[in-house]
Specification:
The complex is a heterodimer of chains A (205) and B (108). With 205 residues, chain A is mainly α. Chain A is built from three helices and two strands. A two-stranded antiparallel ribbon of chain A has the order 1-2. The model of chain A has no long low-confidence stretch (mean pLDDT 87). Chain B has one domain: 3-Layer(aba) Sandwich (Rossmann fold). Strand 1 of chain A pairs antiparallel with strand 1 of chain B, so a sheet runs across the interface.
Chain lengths: 205, 108
């Protein structure tokens, strides 16, 4: 589609500049999209395997814990779990993947999680808690990948739309308009030329 | 430092209590949405949601995962597997690449 501009030399120069910029942006964005997809595929595969692992292990953890809780009376279990001494937190840092800021989590646990008496708790509880403790870093890793994948998917979608817009709309439009203006200017030049020739004939006669 | 939260039914998440993670045992859907919206505004970096709850507030999770700072992750339930986490992963892959590259059979 032709752009709505006046066919003169000013516009022609301006459009040529715009075309140059658009082509360069197109090339850059295409590279960005390819790089993003490359990273994305790697992360997606990693996330897939890790999630599988997490699901298996977490189910095991639940089983361990049910086992432990079945060995204790409900009341003691409640008492045991009432006051946790440990404090689990996470440190967040950001990694820049192709201008997408992806968070990275680091698991930190302060204090001991064995904050209960040894008399009326089952030994299995220790094991179950250890299992829960061990699985947390994996859970955080999966969370990290989940977030990264969502962010990257959005960015890829956005970049792809831009690339397509440049490739199929903006660049062809500008090119078409440039040809139109060139033709128009040539036409004007020809018509002036012929007018001058005619005037010359009239004067000579 | 940021905190970690866990939303789900009581039996599934109670084991994490002694590790000092903020637990939010809930049963109803409305509660879950309310708590989730509250948590993303506070200093929680990671929020885990169990599958049974997550399947009910699926859209809300996807929306918040996109817009908020916190990472909302689905973890399996105690009793049944629904592969909801994988479903989200596949949707994202489809959105980004246009086709599913994982081809795992058990998820339909």
């Amino acid at each position: 589609m032709l752009l709505k501009v006046n066919p003169n030399r000013m516009e022609l120069l301006r459009l040529k500049k715009r075309l140059f910029v658009a082509k360069r942006g197109y090339k850059l964005l295409k590279d960005k999209r390819d790089a993003l997809i490359q990273v994305f595929v790697r992360l997606a595969k990693e996330s897939d395997t890790l999630r599988k692992e997490l699901e298996e292990n977490l189910l095991k953890c639940y089983a361990f814990f049910s086992n432990a809780s079945s060995l204790m009376s409900k009341l003691t279990l409640e008492e045991t779990l009432m006051f946790p001494k440990a404090k689990s937190e996470t440190e967040v840092s950001f990694k820049n993947i192709m201008s997408v800021n992806v968070p990275q989590y680091k698991f930190k646990c302060e204090g001991k999680y064995y904050s209960y008496g040894l008399v009326d708790t089952a030994a299995e509880l220790d094991g179950a808690l250890k299992k829960f403790y061990d699985i947390l870093p994996l859970m955080l890793k999966v969370a990290e990948l989940d977030k990264a994948i969502t962010l990257l998917a959005n960015e890829i979608e956005k970049t792809r739309r831009r690339v397509n817009a440049l490739e199929y709309v903006i660049i062809p439009d500008i090119e078409e308009t440039i040809t139109f203006i060139t033709m128009k200017l040539d036409e004007v030049a020809r018509s002036t030329n012929s007018a001058i020739m005619r005037i010359k004939d009239i004067i000579r006669a | 430092m940021y905190k970690i939260a866990l939303i789900g039914n009581r039996e599934t998440i109670i084991g994490f209590k002694l590790l000092g993670i903020s637990l939010f045992p809930i049963t109803k859907k409305d509660e879950a949405v309310e708590i989730l919206n509250k948590l993303v505004k506070e200093e929680y970096a990671v929020i885990f949601v169990t599958e049974d709850i997550a399947s009910q507030i699926f859209e809300e999770i996807e929306r918040l995962q996109k817009t908020s700072f916190a990472s909302i992750t689905i973890i399996p339930n105690k009793l049944e597997k629904k592969y909801l986490g994988l479903k989200i992963l596949r949707r994202n892959i489809e959105k980004a690449i246009g086709t599913d590259i994982l081809f795992r059979k058990e998820v339909e």
